[in-house]
Amino acid sequence: MSTNDRSNDVAGPDGKVATRDAANRVLIFDTTLRDGEQSPGISLNKQEKLEIAHQLARLNVDVIEAGFPITSPGDFESVQAISREVEGPIICGLARTSKQDIEAAWNAVRDSERPRIHTFIATSDIHIERKLQTTREDVKGQVRAAVAQAREYTDDVEFSPEDGSRSDVEYMAEVIQIALDEGATTINVPDTVGYTMPREYNAMFTELYRLVPDLRKVVVSVHCHDDLGLAVANSLAGLEAGCRQVECAINGIGERAGNASLEEIAMLLHTRQPSLGLWTGIETTEIARTSRLVSRLTGYQVQPNKAIVGRNAFAHEAGIHQDGVLKERTTYEIMDATTVGLRSNSIVLGKHSGRHALSEALQEMGFELDGQALNTAFKRFKEIADRKKQVTAMDLEALVTDELREEIPGYALEWFEVEASSLRPPHARVSITLPDGTSATGSFMGDGPIDAVFQAINAASGMGAKLNDFTIGAVTEGQDALGEVSIVVEVGGFTGAGQGVSTDIIDAAARAYVRALSVAVARSQTDAAIGLPEGAAG
Ligand code: KIV
Ligand code: ZN
What pTM did the predictor assign? Predict the structure, then answer.
């Protein structure tokens, strides 16, 4: 077990002091890049996954489930890159029980300092009979072989009986015993379909501990989906039954209604530590930034009233509440916003700030930019500072993570003009740089100014890109706030996501569209080169 505790005793908001003992340390297993990435419409490229993985390491999660390597060459490469570059957490790859799956998972994680293979197979009768179309005995055999194979590669092996919460507990106990006999070191029992309730999930673990006493020698883990809105409550119920690993995802993203949200689990255990006695190694001040990064790169916006990371999570509307908080914060606030990294907007630059000031501000925020990247950042900063009174840390973070995080070879926006009127359809003209470095212009009469610009970009690029998703938000409050646009486009069956920021939403949208187009075209070229239509192997 990794212990990242900085001190042994901790005082809760109520002043009670609780001791952090090793037996109560809860491991945070982040599955944003695996289960989270299975959310409809999310398609992260390798660079984006790496960026999220680095931030998860800063957040100090214990395990990063980086992907499901057998499902596509792209997923394999991302898991491999994360294993090679990201230091600190255990890097885990998911595998079914087949030989090829486990081999692919191992090859993807083997370069990590701390590799883990996570293998799973369903143990509920409905999954065994209908999905796998096999027998309980066959599943047992598959588990035996899979865990044994994984243990030949590494001594860190996790096994999950999928649909565990709907499985016959006695049969599941036999399967778990086999996994333990073959050397599994973590047993994760998922509520795959988000069906269970806290007392049921707790009772299931109590029964499993009774039937399989060897479970006390390994880490037992919870993995809950949010179909009935109970993922966090069920996870807590499992922890109260003795589990010491939680599988969760930033912003609660994941299959269907999503996974238990990491930030909610982390802050629940942090805030109620004196009463629960459980604790994690999470660097809570990195929570808000991690949430914003995942939201930007996935295009999944966080609902305003979302616990911990929603825009309103620490806002007080009623006068009586505002008055109370002004007199004494804890009258209405159970957590301090700074604990989760909110309200740390101290950096403010203006239009007279120079390159050096920008570079220092970026460094203070953890962004190392130099050479050409710093030049580009400075140029974009000046464009924004010319239109905005103050450029804050939140603005800089949006700029760097949305537009400057990597050079995507492809198209670049040069300029656009739009004529918009309520009397006739808007007309747009754009000029873009093509991948070969030449310029091309296009024009179009669209349904609205943004649509006209998108279609004009299509005309200039000669690409029949289709807009799949479009979201728009404001980076900060106020009339001169930066607008932030996130877009997903599809080109010949390949999707690409792009983001853009600007004080002008048409400009932000055009920048996002060109980026998304570049990503989709680049993906179509790499995947087509290896003969794979999108999602083929999954
Ligand atoms: O929900 C689930 O059962 C899973 C397993 C692969 C752990 O995601
Ligand atoms: Zn899951």
Answer: 0.86
